[in-house]
Write a sequence for this structure.
């Protein structure tokens, strides 16, 4: 029994820690208190969504995600100089498949499509430009994710390796150069402990969450308005010189 339990713990740690592909983290977030709820509304229907209280008033028939304040950080980027930002976090994910029991109280749960967003709650200044509250720090859409957990802890992950579309957008980062993207959320203090009836989704629970977002290669910072103006001016000067030389050649 001890050997089986240790084996399950090792497998769980490897599942949570192993990245889907060679990607580098560019943003993280952390929250205080329960901010995620798994709401089972039918044998094979559920929604994963953000909550601002441990006992949301939303009914299973009309689930509306709450926005919850979290701490958001850019990492491995010049934007790291911004330090910790307070962000309004919203997430909603559909679930339409039964959970799979791995034994020993561990489960996997596949999800359907989902989305999330982190919007700044206060103005901030970056490189001489002031960004208003509500700036899109990071948003995403994806076709599927996977939850894995045992007892009171687990993870929720998504990757371009397993999802036909996983897109990130930001007012501060450009993802046009990225070829691989993923996210990984940790779920802790799951209450009540994970459980599922055979052939059905996981039972309703709430959890603390934090997470990281990664890409390969790293996304590029979006040029500041002043930089864009310089680029446009430079392109105009190059075009002017080209037209003058062409006119001189014709004459």
């Amino acid at each position: 029994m001890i050997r089986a339990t240790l084996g399950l713990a090792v497998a769980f740690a490897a599942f949570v820690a192993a990245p889907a592909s060679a990607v580098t983290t560019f943003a993280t977030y952390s929250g205080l208190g329960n901010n995620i709820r798994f709401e089972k509304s039918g044998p094979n229907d559920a929604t994963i969504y953000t909550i601002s209280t441990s006992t949301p008033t939303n009914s299973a028939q009309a689930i509306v995600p709450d926005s919850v304040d979290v701490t958001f950080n850019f990492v491995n980027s010049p934007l790291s100089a911004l330090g910790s930002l307070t962000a309004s976090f919203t997430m909603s994910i559909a679930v339409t498949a039964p959970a799979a029991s791995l034994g020993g109280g561990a489960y996997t749960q596949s999800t359907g499509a989902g989305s999330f967003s982190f919007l700044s709650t206060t103005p901030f200044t970056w490189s001489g430009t002031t960004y208003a509250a509500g700036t899109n720090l990071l948003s995403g859409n994806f076709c599927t994710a996977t939850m894995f957990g045992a007892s009171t802890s687990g993870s929720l992950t998504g990757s371009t390796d397993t999802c036909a579309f996983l897109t990130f957008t930001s007012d501060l980062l450009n993802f046009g150069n990225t070829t691989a993207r993923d996210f990984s959320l940790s779920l802790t203090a799951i209450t009540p402990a994970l459980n599922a009836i055979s052939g059905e989704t996981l039972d309703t629970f709430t959890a603390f969450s934090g997470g990281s977002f990664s890409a390969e290669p790293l996304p590029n910072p979006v040029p500041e308005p002043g930089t864009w103006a310089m680029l446009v001016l430079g392109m105009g000067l190059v075009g002017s010189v080209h037209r003058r030389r062409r006119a001189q050649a014709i004459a």
